[in-house]
């Protein structure tokens, strides 16, 4: 089914051009017939790489011949259990930004609706022979199956299909030996460029696709800070990031201190190579400053750089073992919590009604904004896994739907790590009261997101159930009436969880698995020579996060 692009307005995208064909005077648009000319037509398939800068498939295609930039709205993608309305919002905003950027070069975006195979069949009729280029994608099982179907279709039709690496993630690795060296080599390559004066293909977008809107869970939110990702990066590296290493753990300070690039990276609005190289440039500039002018920038930038390495490290886990989307990384943990799932506890956790103020404030903040800092994500998963003894699969899907920066490769590996099912990582059981006192000592974050507790002082607000009846009356909040009491006892629940998981790890199966998991996914120590990226650049971090 094929339709007009003019109805972008009905999806809230007034910035996109109307009409079935784009016709800009600065570029030559070619007609649809198969008799195109001597050059092979190129089709660049956009997935989660909504950018024109450092886009190797786009650069390569334009250098080879007339190029069509294609995005396919695939209904089955939006039927996946991890999809939500806020992901739809992010996709539409990214499409608008990409189309705007393409227009600056004289190009345009062709949007089709349907399965990828049906769209390819139609393109084959419209364009005749073409070459298909795309970035590799480390995504959920559905995306892998879709890509396999595309490969089979291309083989049957005699269509060349080329995929290029998007992150420092490598297909076919059996273990992590040499991975850090490969990562550095990928990040130090020259960025792919696209220039003016290229030859673009223009095809109409499919008709009546505006009548199809995905039925998605969750609610729409206000998407904050959707400026150009390069503007966000420069703001962080030049101003906001000086106390990154000191302030990234608290939800009070993290929104400003963190880079806020995660959603831009998740949707490919900026490449990891662009972020890494710009960070290295900034480190060189800081090193050239007099000692008294460096401030805390050296440690902040070093900490941030380590997170860039960490980002790809976790996606590599998912690339190497995609089964962790569904099953425990350590199979010795099978059956540990699956049959003990408590739906009411899950509901209380998801709604921010556990009776632990800091946990609930973090969940309510995430529900409202679509983002929260890493340490608080880890605490939310820890509370679900250990305190509530919930198997990780449903909490993982719930958080995936909430995160506007949902990146499957990081998400599932992290959820399993924080749930204790990797078989190798230290059990990180967060004490919600201690975290509250450490990260929100004045209770300002709690009061903002749980206003019913605003009357408690900075001592009682972290554990209001310990307040006397008179203190509760004075605060205007009776525990159990205006705000729930704790649904579990943390100390008792954590003891049970630690004992249960440790017993599995000490089993014969658990011990055997540890070596297998370490060989496949564990970080590797680097030699002094490997620690240097290239002359003049700072050392590449090797955080033991895996």
Features of the shown structure:
single chain, 546 residues, mainly alpha, Rossmann fold, Serine Threonine Protein Phosphatase 5, Tetratricopeptide repeat, DNA Cyclobutane Dipyrimidine Photolyase, subunit A, domain 3, 5-stranded parallel β-sheet, 7 strands, 6% strand, disordered N terminus
Descriptive overview:
The structure is a single chain. By secondary structure, the protein is mainly α. It has three domains: 5-166, HUPs (Rossmann fold); 171-192 and 218-320 and 534-546, Alpha Horseshoe (Serine Threonine Protein Phosphatase 5, Tetratricopeptide repeat); 331-506, Orthogonal Bundle (DNA Cyclobutane Dipyrimidine Photolyase, subunit A, domain 3), CATH 1.10.579. It is 44% helix and 6% strand. It has helices spanning 56-64, 85-104, 116-127, 141-157, 179-187, 229-238, 244-247, 254-257, 262-266, 272-287, 297-320, 343-351, 357-369, 374-387, 393-402, 408-419, 432-439, 444-449, 469-475, 490-505, 508-521, and strands at residues 29-30, 41-46, 67-73, 109-113, 130-135, 161-164, 200-201. The strands form two sheets. Strands 4-3-2-5-6 form a five-stranded parallel beta sheet, with helices on both faces. It has a two-stranded parallel ribbon with strand order 1-7. Strand 5 (130-135), helix 4 and strand 6 form a beta-alpha-beta unit. Helix 11 crosses helix 16 (408-419). The two termini are 45 Å apart. The relative contact order is 0.11. Residues 1-38 and 526-546 have low confidence and may be disordered.
């Amino acid at each position: 089914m094929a339709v007009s692009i003019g109805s972008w307005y009905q999806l809230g995208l007034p910035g996109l051009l109307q009409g079935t064909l784009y016709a800009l005077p600065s570029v030559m648009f070619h007609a649809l017939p198969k008799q195109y000319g001597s050059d092979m037509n190129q089709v660049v398939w956009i997935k989660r790489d909504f950018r024109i800068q450092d886009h190797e498939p786009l650069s390569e295609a334009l250098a080879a011949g007339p190029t069509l930039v294609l995005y396919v709205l695939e209904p089955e993608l939006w039927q996946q259990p991890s999809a939500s309305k806020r992901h739809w919002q992010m996709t539409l905003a990214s499409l608008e930004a990409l189309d705007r950027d393409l227009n600056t070069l004289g190009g345009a975006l062709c949007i089709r609706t349907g399965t990828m195979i049906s769209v390819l069949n139609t393109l084959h009729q419209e364009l005749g022979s073409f070459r298909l280029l795309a970035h590799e994608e480390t995504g959920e099982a559905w995306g892998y199956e879709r890509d396999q179907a595309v490969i089979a279709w291309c083989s049957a039709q005699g269509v060349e299909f080329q995929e290029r690496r998007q992150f420092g993630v490598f297909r076919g690795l059996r273990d992590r030996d040499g991975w850090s060296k490969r990562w550095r080599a990928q990040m130090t390559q020259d960025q792919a460029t696209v220039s003016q004066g290229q030859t673009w293909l223009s095809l109409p977008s499919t008709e009546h696709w505006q009548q199809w809107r995905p039925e998605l869970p969750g609610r729409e939110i206000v998407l904050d800070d959707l400026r150009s990702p390069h503007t966000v990066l420069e703001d962080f590296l030049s101003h906001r990031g000086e106390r990154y290493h000191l302030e990234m753990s608290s939800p009070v300070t993290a929104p400003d201190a963190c880079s806020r690039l995660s959603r831009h990276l998740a949707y490919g609005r900026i490449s990891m190579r662009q972020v890494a190289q710009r960070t290295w440039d900034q480190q060189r500039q800081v090193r050239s400053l007099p000692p008294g002018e460096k401030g805390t920038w050296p440690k902040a930038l070093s900490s941030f750089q380590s997170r860039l390495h960490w980002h790809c490290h976790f996606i590599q886990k998912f690339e190497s073992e995609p089964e962790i989307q569904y099953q425990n990384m350590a199979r010795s943990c099978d059956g540990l919590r699956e049959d003990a799932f408590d739906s009411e506890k899950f509901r209380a956790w998801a709604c921010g009604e556990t009776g632990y103020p800091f946990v609930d404030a973090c969940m309510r903040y995430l529900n409202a904004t679509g983002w929260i800092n890493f340490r608080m994500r880890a605490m939310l998963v820890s509370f679900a896994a250990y305190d509530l003894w919930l198997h990780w699969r449903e909490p993982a899907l719930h958080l995936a739907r909430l995160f506007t920066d949902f990146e499957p490769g990081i998400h599932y590996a992290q959820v399993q790590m924080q749930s204790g099912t990797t078989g190798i990582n230290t059990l990180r059981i967060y004490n919600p009261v201690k975290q509250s006192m450490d990260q929100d000592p004045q209770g300002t974050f709690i009061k903002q997101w749980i206003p019913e507790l605003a009357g408690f002082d900075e001592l009682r607000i972290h554990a209001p159930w310990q307040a006397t009846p008179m203190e509760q009356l004075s605060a205007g909040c009776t525990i159990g009436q205006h705000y729930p009491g704790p649904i579990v006892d943390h100390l008792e629940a954590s003891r049970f969880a630690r004992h249960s998981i440790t017993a599995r790890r000490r089993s014969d199966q658990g011990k055997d698995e540890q070596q297998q998991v370490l060989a496949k996914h564990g970080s590797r120590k680097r030699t002094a020579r490997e620690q240097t990226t290239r002359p003049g650049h700072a050392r590449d971090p090797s955080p033991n996060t895996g």
